[in-house]
Structure formats: C-alpha cells, structure tokens
Design brief:
The structure is a single chain. This protein is an all-alpha fold. The protein has two domains: about 1-155, no CATH class; about 155-230, no CATH class. Helix content is about 85%, strand content about 0%. The protein has helices spanning about 5-10, 15-25, 30-45, 50-75, 75-80, 85-100, 100-105, 110-115, 115-125, 130-155, 155-165, 165-210, 215-230. The protein is globular.
C-alpha cells in the first residue's frame, strides 16, 4: 500500500481531496491523518498549504453532500447493504436527532461520526439549505484546525527536535505509531464483533424455525465465539 507521502508526491493536494471525499461518503478512514501529514508536507515546501486547505474543504463538503443526497434517496436500506455497523448508525442518529445542525458542524471532530454525518442528515430529512451551510462551516472549521496543527508541526519540527532532544522526538513518533496501530486494531475488532452479532441474529432466526438449534443457544454460542475473537 502506498504511503501518504508517496500519494502526495504523485498527486499533490488532489490526494487530500479524494481521501476526504471517500471518508465523508461513509468509509471510516483517518482523514485527519492525511490532512495533518499533507499540511506538514506543505510546511517543508513540497506543496502549497493553500491548495491543501482548499482541496480538503472541497473534499469534505463534496463527500458529505453526496452521502446526504444518497441518504435522502436510499436511506437506511443502502447503509445496510454497505454493511455499516448498526451501533454506529444508532449512535450517529442519536446525535443528529438531538443536535441537528450542530452535529454537522462539530461532528467532524468525532472519528466514527464524521463518516456518517451526511447519511444521517439525509435519512433524517434535514432541509437541504441548512445542511449545505452547516456542512460548509464544519468543513472549514475541521480543515483549519488540523491543517494548522500539521503546518505548525512541520514548520517547527527542527526547533522541536533541537529544544526537546532527539529522544523526545522518538517518543512522539512511537506514540503516533502506537496510536495508529490501536485504531487499526479497534476497527478490526469492531468489525469482528459486528460479524459475530450478525451471525447470532441469523442463528436465532434459524433456530426459531427448526428444532436443530434453539435461538438462545445459537446466540450464546455466537457471542462466545465473539469473546474469543475479541
């Protein structure tokens, strides 16, 4: 798999645009990582920070808008076909029902919610104009936050290393690697648990229709398998 820096070398800020479009359409990939790395890369002179910011804002807005339109037309059925975990949908729907436009604005800062904002707004029939405006405000705020963080980090990396020493830099780098590894592990664990839950539901339905396996027994066995996987 190509690294983020190699993607930036080949495609420049367009890579940022495409990355966050995919994330905001419903694929939970770490868009903030792409933005921070791209901004740091721009600070070192490899690309334009202005283009990174503009492409990111455009990508976030476009991805969320596409998912919003899809949510209004296809709704929950399409999300089910895409195998989006039900617990993610339930949590996101709770946020949307309670906070509405504020969810579109501040939900960008919640990793699992960011990917489903457009879908939930569309499914809950949020009016188009308010959504477009809240979506734009959220895209701008989120991009400026993580873009500034990445740019400052990249622009001052030499000073940080000089003041704090190489040892601290190594610790920070290891911390970042461990965090990314944990996020990958958590996503895979959640996917396994969701698969086991689906197996339990299917087994319950099968058990209810025949004497071979009772619904409760099937559920217990499936959940026990999930414990082993987790």
């Amino acid at each position: 798999m190509p690294s983020i820096t190699s993607l930036l070398d080949h495609y420049g800020p367009l890579a940022v645009f495409l990355f966050v479009v995919v994330e905001n359409f419903g694929v939970p990939i770490p868009g903030e990582t792409m933005l921070v790395v791209a901004a740091a890369y721009a600070a070192s002179g490899h690309t334009s920070i202005a283009l990174v910011v503009v492409c990111c804002i455009a990508g976030v807005w476009t991805g969320a808008t596409l998912s919003y339109l899809a949510g209004r037309s296809g709704g929950v059925a399409l999300m089910t076909r895409l195998r989006v975990p039900e617990r993610h949908l339930a949590r996101a729907e709770g946020y949307m029902t309670r906070w509405g436009g504020y969810t579109v604005l501040f939900g960008r800062y919640v990793a699992f919610l960011r990917s489903y904002i457009g879908w939930l707004a569309g499914i809950n029939k949020m009016r188009p104009l308010p959504f477009y405006l809240w979506n734009l405000a959220g895209a701008v705020a989120w991009t400026l936050t993580f873009g500034a963080l990445g740019y400052l980090l990249g622009n001052n990396w030499g000073l940080i290393e000089k003041k704090l020493g190489a040892g601290v830099v190594v610790v920070v780098a290891v911390g970042v690697v461990l965090y990314v590894a944990y996020e990958v592990y958590k996503r895979r664990r959640d996917a396994r648990i969701e698969a086991v839950s689906e197996q339990a539901r299917r087994a319950t339905r099968v058990g209810a229709g025949g004497p071979a396996l009772g619904g409760e027994q099937a559920t217990e066995e499936a959940l026990a398998a999930g414990d082993k996987l987790a």
